[in-house]
Structure formats: C-alpha cells, structure tokens
Amino acid sequence: MLPLQWETDFTTAKQKASESHKNILLYFSGSDWCAPCIQTRKNYLDSETFSAMAETKLVLLNADFPRRKANQLSAEQQAKNDALAEKYNPDGEFPLTILLDENGKVIQKWSGKPKNSVQEFTDEVRSLCSK
C-alpha cells in the first residue's frame, strides 16, 4: 500500500474533498518536538488500518509546526498553517485531529493522542464520515 498523500494547503484539500465527496482530516502536529504527535502519526495515521479507510473516505491535511531550524517551513507555508491554527486550533493544542466536512465545517475534534486502539479510532472516524 502506498503511503497516504498529505496535503499542506487548505484550499487544495477543500477542492479535492468537494470533487470526491470526502471529508477532510486536519492534523495539527509538531513533527520534530511533540512526542505524542510523532506517536499518533506513526501508530495511528500511518497505520495500514487507518490508511485503508482514509484512502476512500478522507482528504488528509497536515498543519505542521516544526521547531528545529533544519525543518523550518517556507514563510508561505508557515502563514497557511498559522491561518489554519487561528481558525481551528486557537488554543494551540498538539496533537489536534479534526474531522471537517468538504466545506471546512468541524464535525469532530480529538485532542491529544487517541486513547482507544487504532481499530476503534479508525472505526470512529469512518462512522462519522458516513453521516
């Protein structure tokens, strides 16, 4: 199975979601400093179980906030992520996973690393997508 494609642009993600009638999974992460973010991505979002479901139900959007100089984002990408954070993550929670409809309306939010199993988390996201 190919790794899932993560968008970094909200406009592109909304367009893809609209065209394919999928939901958007917006993931706020600190990829180089936030241990729960790294674990969530590795153990949940990149898992085969989640990926198989996401491929048919979701457009994935990552708003990453790395801190190390080597991983710094372009000014343009940083501005896009800041705008997403202002709208969807005003409290600066990491990790924060948000399920959006194709228009960007919040359906569900998960703060922190999921507390349930990968299968349970995947099933929960899937059931919310089919509404």
Structure notes:
This protein is of the alpha/beta class and about 130 residues long. About 45% of the residues lie in helices and about 20% in strands. The protein is built from five helices and five strands; from the N terminus they run E-H-E-H-H-E-H-E-E-H. A hairpin with a 5-residue loop joins strand 4 and strand 5. Helix 3 (about 50-55) runs parallel beside helix 5 (about 120-130).
In a nutshell, what does this entry contain?
The protein has 131 residues and is an alpha/beta fold. 44% of the residues lie in helices and 21% in strands.
Write the layout of secondary structure elements.
Blueprint: E1 6-7, H1 10-20, E2 23-29, H2 35-45, H3 48-57, E3 58-64, H4 75-88, E4 96-100, E5 106-111, H5 118-129
Parallel strand pairs: 1-3, 2-3
Antiparallel strand pairs: 2-4, 4-5
Helix pairs in contact: 3-5
The total count of strands amounts to 5
CA radius of gyration is 14 Å
* Number of contiguous helices: 5
Distance between the termini: 27 Å
Percentage beta strand: 15-25%
Tell me roughly what share of residues is in helical segments. 40-55%
Give average pLDDT, whole number: 95
Described by its quaternary structure, the protein is: single chain
* Helix-strand makeup class: alpha/beta
Order of helices and strands: EHEHHEHEEH
> What overall form do the CA principal axes indicate?
globular
Name the strands of the widest sheet in spatial order.
1-3-2-4-5
Largest sheet report: 5 strands, mixed
**Which stretches are low in confidence, meaning pLDDT under 50 for 5 or more residues running?**
none
